[in-house]
UniProtKB/TrEMBL annotation:
One of its GO terms (cellular component) is cytoplasm. Keywords: ATP-binding, Cytoplasm, Kinase, NAD, NADP, Nucleotide-binding, Transferase. PANTHER family: NAD KINASE. It is an enzyme of class 2 (transferase). This is NAD kinase. Its EC number is 2.7.1.23.
Amino acid sequence: MKLAFVSNDSEKSQGIKDYFQTLCHMGRFEGDDTDPDVVISIGGDGTLLSAFHQYQDCINHVKFAAIHTGHLGFYTDWVAGEAEQLAQSLINDDLVNVSYPLLQLKVIQGERSSRRVRQILCLNEATIKQVTATFICEVFIGDELFETFRGDGLCVSTPTGSTGINKSIGGAVVHPSLNALQLTEFASLNNRVFRTLSSPLIVTQDETITFRPISNGHSTEKLVLTYDNLFESAEELKELSFKVADERIHFLGSKHKRFWNRVSYSFIGPVKGSGHEI
Ligand code: NAP
């Protein structure tokens, strides 16, 4: 089995990485950074997001196993003390394989004569925000104009990303067994003249959400596009469209389940008598 490692800089994470690399040197596994079968992420959810973007070109055949070395994460199934158990389970090939939906983001930039079109896969979410002045954009669901948004920005998240920034801006937590995307607003302007839905909206895998930004004429307006832990300045942005990706992310875990226990434990804390098994 070919393994690659993505870890944060903490001493604990580096120690676990060393342990797996020793197993590679002993011939139990093969180290392969370019075309691995399994990517072992060691750190937190942020580390897993980095690992996902590093290996998204081989998303159809690569599997992730995430060990957390900080506080409990949403993608990180394994605790630091379980590194040996994970190694043995990889050798025995007896791990549960679970997959989650991803977001397919299409970005169109540039004038007609110099149009640039890109596709980006996101694990948590993509957001578009304006640094100065009001962000204005037409929001389409399918081919139909749904609303004209005015405010700070918009966010489209996956079910597993729903516990990230989506939740902080009032979005619902969505079970990852649903093939759906959620649209949430950053500080929408609502008054007698301007109106948006002003509540989170969830679309199915058959629907596409499209944003077409409209310039508000401010010379200072600057758009920032974020996707998971990455961001860029979105110059000459013409259109963003979002749909549930055909690809999914695959995890190897022994207990990547009990989603609602994890949500309750992470956001509310241990609840007496709940029988949490995190
Ligand atoms: P960061 O700003 O260094 O960390 C953001 C925090 O979000 C970390 O504690 C991270 O967990 C946690 N996180 C990441 N994905 C999560 C998920 N699916 N569910 C619950 N918590 C999650 O940024 P980062 O580590 O590069 O991660 C980028 C992500 O952070 C974005 O995709 C966004 O969802 C989230 N974020 C949230 C806010 C907010 O809530 N106001 C603001 C910015 C970004 P670990 O500590 O385990 O890494």
